[in-house]
Amino acid sequence: MKSVYFLLGVVLSCTAWSQASHARSVFVINSINCCSYDDSLRGFEASLDAKIIQVCLAENNDHAGILETVRQIAPDLIAAVGSTAAHFSARHISDIPIVYFMVMNPDDVLLQSKNTQGVVLNQNPALMLEMLTSLHLGAERIGTLSSDGMQNAFAMRHLQQAVEKKGLSLKIGRVGNKLDSIDAITQLVESSDAIILLPDRMAISARSFRQMVEISRQHRVPLLVPTGLFVKLGGLASFAHDAADIGHQAGEMANRILDGDTVERVEYPRHNQLVLNRTTVKWNRLRLPRSLQQGAKLYD
User: Fold this and answer.
1) What distance in Å separates the CA atoms of residue 142 and residue 165, rounded to the nearest whole number?
2) Is the dihedral of CA 228, 263, 113, 54 positive or negative?
3) pLDDT-based confidence at 277, cuts 50/70/90?
4) Packing angle of the helix pair 206-219, 180-191 (nearest 10 deg)
5) Architecture of the domain defined by 125-240+273-299
6) 12 pLDDT above the threshold of 60
7) 192 φ/ψ angles, rounded to the nearest 5 degrees
């Protein structure tokens, strides 16, 4: 009953909007209330030139009612925060532009929907390769892991494109289950100058990652990782993203769509803070240029 009253309130408030003005409206569908999503929403709202109504899927089980509210309001744009909200929106809403953010590894549901676009949480592989160049590694052979389920299909395609553009070679270790990842990484360090791990829950677990770190250190093959947490656990480097800025970037994308402009279907975060593990730097006998240390987040 609570959700019914809430949705009724949403409809009434938006009816009042339409009567008061012709202001552009955005319907925000949030996956769950948490600190990072809340930060991203603050950034989104700060940059958006439109009226906003917000619902949270985790706190409202009447999903059919949410869709009925969207139909009645007829907003100019849907903003989806997190993977759950993004998939819910893409599967059920096809006639309103959707901007998603705080989503890692968007799958074909999002990439093939004609009305979806967004800012992903993935690392930009071009930046990872540039960072290797800054370390003067001369890395020409790049290794990575990929599970049979292709949970990282989006990231893999973009890594392949970035490697090809640089004229480098890419060797992919196939992982059928979580136990295969150690064997795959052991083989990769023999034939790679650096390894870039993509976000893949099948290929990387907390237990297997610790073993990967030891193997990479023993062979002095740099291990670039998907998030700052993995750097803290022993990976060489990654990039950290600010949730509020990702929301701000998504808000600017929404503004362009509302203005009738064309936008890229997928954008990487524009602000990236380098995260480094100094102990791993020493293990790999790397010289860390002062330019890389400036502004970087460092773990020991």
Assistant:
1) 13
2) positive
3) very high
4) 20
5) 3-Layer(aba) Sandwich (3.40)
6) no
7) -130, 145
